[in-house]
Structure formats: structure tokens, C-alpha cells
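Page 37, continued from 36.
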């Protein structure tokens, strides 16, 4: 069954069959990275442009490696070395790139909804490499692939996600996909990172030990300090006292539990070094699978034949005022921002019982 979408903007609303198609395609690409000559002509003659407005190591590098392993030409741009520093808006930058006829644009941006904004105005496929606190679909896909490899399934698993849920695009994408594929999700963190609105996503608790008990998978998240406009907890030391994953906490999970982390890790804050490097950790498998997942996404989208609808979209649809509003503030038409937490952080006390 072919992938039914023109873009990959997020995993919310992506159906079970499309998710499994992405995972199966990614699994088939893993063998290429194990060859002596790690290159196939799958995307020969195609051009992929990456446009990153935020720092990245794993995502940016793996998209580039994925494109080059399929023989695509890859152009990497960052906001610090582009005309953005001269005042150019995201829309003008993207339109100039689109005029050069790329076959896909990979975008990372601090504004939630930035990929949707471009997808409505450009004809080429847009791939979301992370937009603010909204979604990070390829990270969630590589997490799913890693879990399925180690567990053999996703349906029926209990997945505990621990940390800064409120600001995490990784958590959002994983919750959407895991629930679609039949996994049970638990969200664990201090009250300021788990407002009541998030209870609709799954079971919630402020007790790390209770949250990881009998879990099949534990996914740790770092504190997203760059997205916080105020203090959400008293101190890093107090946060780590209650929410750092240690060997003692891992011992409460299922005996064959696996530990994931999207990176970058803050050792000793959200995860102890002996856990990050221990036998339950599959963090390096996540990095490896990131290349296969991004190969699959590029293959399914950049190889897609262009239609009349694609060409029609390329006509300008927004004036300079709309473009400037995106460059200077949140998107008026993008996904809603995360719910506001309480004004003052609560003490990080573990709930009794």
C-alpha cells in the first residue's frame, strides 16, 4: 500500500496502515547501512534541501546521510549562515529554495506549525524535522522501529514516557503513534510538566517509581530549557532527585524492559550514566534506526510523482505581512501552543500511595 500523504508534518492523524508502511519500508533500508559500499541509486537525480532554524546533531546528520546513501544531492542550510540574518522571512527563504526545484525540503523551526505553513504554500514535499513543542515525527518513527525490533510488536505494550512532557515534541509524536498502534502510554513528570489537559493522552502520575512499574519500555526526556519562559521546578538537583532514572527505578519495570532517550542526554539529571550505558539501553540502536527511517521518508516522498495540485500550490498565496508574522511570532494558523502550566511551580513531592 503506497504512502498516502504528500508531506510528513506530524503523526497526529496518520493511520495505522501508513505508520506500518513507514516502519516496514525503514526496516527494509537497514541492510544498506551494513554493506561495505553504503550507497544505492534510489534517489539519483533528486535534490533534498534541509533548512534548520534550531541546533541539531542527530536529526540533521542522519537526514544528510540518508539522502546521500540513496544518491540524492543534499543541500544543508542553517539560519545562522543564510539570509535570515539579513531579515529574510521563512516564507521568502522557502520560496527561493522552491524556485530551484528541490524534490523535498526538511525543515526544523522553533515555531509550531512552520512545516504546515510551508506545505500550504509550496509544491514540493515538506518533512517536519521538529517544530517548536509541536511534533517530531521522524524521531517517533525511529523510536517505534527500535521498540518493534526489540519487542517484536507494539500493540499491547506499556510505554512510560518520563520528563518534560509539556514542552516535548518527541512525546507528542510518540503518543499519537503509540496509541494508534495499540500501545498503552503512561506519562510521568512533576505537576508543572503534566497539566490536567494531558490526561487525555494517557495515564499520568507524578511518581517515577509508580510510573515505571511493570513497564515494557521507558522513554526518558530531557528538560527543554530553551522552550521555557519561566521556572517550572525549584532546581535541577531537586528534579533529578525525584525523576532521574536510576538502576533502582529500572528494577521496578519488567525484567526485559528497554530504555530509550531521543538525545541529547543530560547524564545525572534525567538519566543515570549506568542506566544510559547499561544492558537495558537501546539508545544507540535509536541513532542507527534514525538513518533507516529518514531513508524511508525521503524515498516515499521525494520519489512521489508531482501532480497538478502540487504545481497549483506553488503560486504565491500570502503577502509580506503574513510572512513577517511567521518570522516574528507564533503561527496564527498553526497547531495550538502547549497548555499553560500553573503560574508557580509546585514542590516535586511524590504522591503517597
Amino acid at each position: 500500500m503506497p504512502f498516502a500523504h504528500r508531506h510528513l508534518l506530524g503523526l497526529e492523524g496518520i493511520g495505522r496502515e501508513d505508520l506500518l508502511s513507514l516502519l516496514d519500508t525503514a526496516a527494509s533500508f537497514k541492510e544498506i547501512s551494513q554493506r561495505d559500499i553504503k550507497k544505492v541509486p534510489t534517489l539519483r537525480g533528486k535534490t533534498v534541501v534541509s533548512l534548520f532554524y534550531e541546533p541539531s546533531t542527530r536529526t540533521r546528520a542522519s537526514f544528510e546521510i540518508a539522502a546521500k546513501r540513496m544518491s540524492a544531492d543534499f543541500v544543508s542550510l542553517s539560519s545562522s549562515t543564510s539570509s535570515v540574518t539579513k531579515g529574510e522571512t521563512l516564507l521568502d527563504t522557502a520560496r527561493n529554495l522552491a524556485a530551484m526545484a528541490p524534490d523535498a525540503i526538511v525543515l526544523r523551526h522553533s515555531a509550531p506549525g512552520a512545516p504546515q505553513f510551508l506545505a500550504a504554500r509550496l509544491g514540493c514535499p515538506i518533512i517536519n524535522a521538529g517544530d517548536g513543542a509541536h511534533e517530531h515525527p521522524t524521531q517517533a518513527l525511529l523510536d517505534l522501529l527500535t521498540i518493534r525490533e526489540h519487542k517484536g510488536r507494539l500493540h499491547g505494550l506499556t510505554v512510560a514516557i518520563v520528563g518534560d512532557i509539556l514542552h516535548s515534541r518527541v512525546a507528542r509524536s510518540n503518543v499519537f503513534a503509540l496509541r494508534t498502534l495499540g500501545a498503552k502510554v503512561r506519562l510521568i513528570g512533576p505537576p508543572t510538566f503534566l497539566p490536567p489537559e494531558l490526561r487525555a493522552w494517557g495515564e499520568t502520575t507524578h511518581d517515577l517509581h509508580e510510573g515505571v512499574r511493570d513497564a515494557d519500555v521507558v522513554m526518558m526526556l530531557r528538560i527543554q530549557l530553551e522552550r521555557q519562559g519561566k521556572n517550572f521546578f525549584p532546581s535541577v538537583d531537586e528534579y533529578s532527585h525525584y525523576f532521574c532514572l536510576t538502576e533502582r527505578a529500572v528494577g521496578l519495570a519488567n525484567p526485559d524492559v528497554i530504555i530509550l532517550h531521543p538525545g541529547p542526554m543530560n547524564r545525572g539529571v534525567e538519566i543515570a550514566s549506568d542506566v544510559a550505558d547499561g544492558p537495558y539501553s537501546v539508545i544507540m540502536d535509536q541513532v542507527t534506526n534514525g538513518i533507516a527511517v529518514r531513508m524511508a521518508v525521503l524515498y516515499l516522498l521525494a520519489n512521489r510523482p508531482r501532480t497538478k495540485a502540487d504545481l497549483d500550490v506553488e503560486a504565491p498565496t500570502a503577502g509580506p505581512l503574513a510572512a513577517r508574522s511567521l518570522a516574528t511570532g507564533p503561527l496564527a494558523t498553526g497547531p495550538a501552543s502547549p497548555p499553560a502550566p500553573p503560574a508557580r511551580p509546585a514542590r516535586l513531592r511524590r504522591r503517597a500511595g
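The domain at 16-136+289-328 is CATH 3.40.50.1370 (Rossmann fold). Flag for discussion at group meeting. Confidence is low (pLDDT under 50) at residues 315-346, 348-353.
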